[in-house]
Amino acid sequence: xxxxxxxxxxxxxxxxxxxxxxxxxxxxxxxxxxxxxxxxxxxxxxxxxxxxxxxxxxxxxxxxxxxxxxxxxxxxxxxxxxxxxxxxxxxxxxxxxxxxxxxxxxxxxxxxxxxxxxxxxxxxxxxxxxxxxxxxxxxxxxxxxxxxxxxxxxxxxxxxxxxxxxxxxxxxxxxxxxxxxxxxxxxxxxxxxxxxxxxxxxxxxxxxxxxxxxxxxxxxxxxxxxxxxxx
Length: 231
Fold this sequence. Notes:
Number of strands: 12
Order of helices and strands: EEHEEEEHEHEEHEEHEH
Helix content: 25-40%
Distance between the termini: 28 Å
Strand content: 25-35%
Shape: elongated
Radius of gyration: 20 Å
Oligomer: single chain
Largest sheet: 7 strands, parallel
């Protein structure tokens, strides 16, 4: 299996040029040579079997040889809204959300959120790209703009809306339209406040419990995603 690389430019012609991190990796880590074959994708769906035709100091030129319309997305769209933890825990959460097939991640601001927990958008995007390269996804998880809980809770009532909170329904007890998109929400360390949960109830969200143990943010988020996407 050829190595996978991400193109920041749309792949629409017979040739493409890799720059930045991807070119650096090919040039200085992999020591690629002209004639090396790789797989390249642009995050918009599908992938190209490609061949390196020229190596520059900071760029790698490719001939796009064969397009493969391969998709590895879930049948339904999943959005994960979460009060992000800091540091390596945040990176781990984003990477695993990509692997599990989450379509969109919304950083949440809640009453107990840590101030400025989210990494810079460019850094979060890099986590998404690296995880997509590894797991084979050809569409990038979208990192949405941060939203406050009291705004996000008003999201479309036509989709499944679930929020993790101790004492809620078991996953097997929730009512879910398996043909509709799903919003999953997870609060910060210390959880959502009683007022925030009450607001969710008033707006028709289902409250979902994840067992007797108190889970960290990233564990709760990924446990909920996994239960609904891989059984």
